[in-house]
Specification:
Distance between the termini of chain B: 23 Å
Distance between the termini of chain A: 28 Å
Order of helices and strands of chain B: HHHHHH
Helix content of chain B: over 70%
Largest sheet of chain A: none
Structural class of chain B: mainly alpha
Shape of chain B: globular
Order of helices and strands of chain A: HHHHHHHHH
Oligomer: heterodimer
Helix content of chain A: 55-70%
Number of helices of chain B: 6
Structural class of chain A: mainly alpha
Number of strands of chain A: 0
Number of helices of chain A: 9
Largest sheet of chain B: none
Radius of gyration of chain A: 21 Å
Chain lengths: 182, 122
Amino acid sequence: MAHDQADFGELQLTREFPGRVLGSRRSVATLAAAVSKNQSQPLRLKTRTVIALLVASNVLGNFTLSRGLHEVGRLVSLSPWPYIHAFVNPLVVLGVLLLIVWLISQLSLLSRVDLSYVLPVTSVSYVLTAMMGEFLLHERVSTERWIGIGLIGLGVSLVVRTVPRTVPVLNKFGDRPFEAAQ
Amino acid sequence: MKWLLIALIVVPGTIADVLNTMGMKRNGEVYDFRSRAIFRLILSLARNPYIGVGVLAMAVSFFALMALLSITNLSFAVPATAFSYVLETALAKYVLKEHIGWRRWAGTSLVGCGVLLVSLGV
């Protein structure tokens, strides 16, 4: 029995099966303890956390970048100077950094789950952009937009009830070989 | 000109997503999000040909969108993205061999319609 349990713990920590990783319900406390205690423990993020990171960085990145570029002014030039000059603006820098976070979280998400799952689920960013317009910038959001937002919400709620991954990942990125995918 | 730009947004955007998915599935599952692990991930992605072409196609799509936005407004530009949802889901089924049940088809179609309405109803 004790041996079995130790084995199970080992499995949890080192080579989780795809289904386990995706559906894992390990507590945040365990994760936080592992991170604070020992840096050699990998920092695992749940798929939903990565989705939240992706959506947040997408919405905020687009927002700050468009604000920043608005401050900078027109950027249609063949000389590189206006582009370099744009990077002096802190909002532009922040926007570009957020879009880098967006790209990395998008790619990590694609390494775990289906493209046909990622696409609809991350379109929550349209909803957040419209809501930000309404509540933060006090723009009027039209009825058609609210209906569209409702449809996106409905569609996403259908897609999140499907199995996130239906194809095998060929190997696990990192030092250990991954043999569970077949 | 407008329609050429729309094609330059949709086609490279779709190719980018499919190639990035193929590249990331081959590269392996990303399970560690510490900064050093992310750094190693970026180094390995730089040597991954799928990701290289995918990110290049993404850039083409992005600059085409910028160009289109400079000659039309958002309500003309974004509905093109709504169509690409259905296109990409079809490619995910036939190229990436993902299993797409009715729930995912219905959800994706609803999201596509929603994006269409959100961008048209400015």
